[in-house]
Write a structure and sequence with these properties.
It is built from 11 helices and no strands. The chain is mainly alpha-helical and 228 residues long. It is globular.
Length: 228
Amino acid sequence: MHNVSATAMQLLDGVLHIDRYLTALTAKYHAAVYALLFSIVFAETGLVVTPFLPGDSLLFAVGALAAVDTAHTLSAPFAWALLALAAVLGNTTNYAIGRWVGPRAFTGRYRLLRTEHLRRTEAFFARYGALTIVVSRFMPIIRTVAPFVGGVGRMRFGRFQVYNIVGGVSWTGLFIWGGYLFGNVPVVKAHFGIVTLAIIALSLVPAGWAAVRARWGRAQSRLRPSGE
């Protein structure tokens, strides 16, 4: 239990001070930091068991650091292209795993997803259809689950890939360039941890709203007479 708490605190500290960690890693590893960034974005979107990795906050920090990196180690355009590729490849991998595992992922020893995460994602698919692959990019956890569920449901690969590319490019671009333009504004830089938490909180609002709507709908259907 102590190890779990310690790990949780380390993850929280990493999220709150991601700008400092990224600065230190870039100073130490220089261009090799791109490999680390690629791996994190790929894993966060491509492996259904790692939704806890930083996404929005990491991209924002990359953009903010690229704007003031006098050593020119980080380039915002190159980071955008590289991490958009990581996001697209991650989703493609996640989709392929879901297609391979199939419905077994939700039952017995193959169970990989928490029920509430699955229900929220299903609610988004019910409301937005294939567009969920784009919309979910901007929501932690849901963006990790959505391509997997798309694979399980055997969404047509060509259609999936179109939404995947649009979502990956727009998601990485929004946060990298948002960080580039606003990450070094004095009030933002001085309260980077609070800004990071605000970004995460805002990104969770649509998922929470979808979960409330889905639960309300199920409650209404139970109360409705069976003959209706």
